[in-house]
Structures are given as C-alpha cells and as structure tokens.
Amino acid sequence: QVQLVESGGGLVQAGGSLRLSCAASGSIFRIDAMGWYRQAPGKQRELVARFTSSRSTNYADSVKGRFTISRDNAKNTVYLQMNSLKPEDTAVYYCNANIARYFGDSYYSYWGQGTQVTVSS
Length: 121
What we know:
Shape: elongated
C-alpha cells in the first residue's frame, strides 16, 4: 500500500508564506515524477509545480517566481515553498507521485488527500 500525506496548509494573509510537505510511504521501489496540483472551488484541478521523470521542474505561469518546489529523495518527500501568496492561490493542494512499488512494476499515479490553503485579502 502506498500513501501520500500532505501537511502545512492553513490560513494566511495576502503576501504571506506557507510551506507544504508531502511524504510518500509504504511499498515504494522508486518514485518518478512528483509534484503539486491544486483545485479551487468550481475549477478544474491544475498543475502548480512538479519534478518530471528527468528531474527537471515545471511551474504554472501563475506561480513562477513565487513558489519553489524541492525534494528530499532519501525521505521520499516533496516540498512546496509558497511566498507572496495571493487570494487567487486559495485552493486545496494535492500531492501527486508516479510510483513503482517493486522492481519491474509499472509506475502508477497516486494522490494525497489534499490540504487546504486559504489566502485572505
């Protein structure tokens, strides 16, 4: 069984900062792409930032220069440092990872339960 557990969400004023963490645990052989998505009320889930399978990074245009994704491979953990937060960043943030559970396994996509980020104006 594989689990992704997010933490670090909360309520912050505009201009403030938050740091999200996502730890993967369970039967894990290798983690491929890993990153963060978000979903605001009435909107589709969208990419925020992620590490690709080649370890490069992708960011949504709306967060470039404000958010930074980082990763600790030894801990199977990915972080999202969010600075200069805006009310439009308010959403549920989800962690996603492509994980192979054992040698020879295919990579499967796993999602965390989500953590709420609310930015007040």
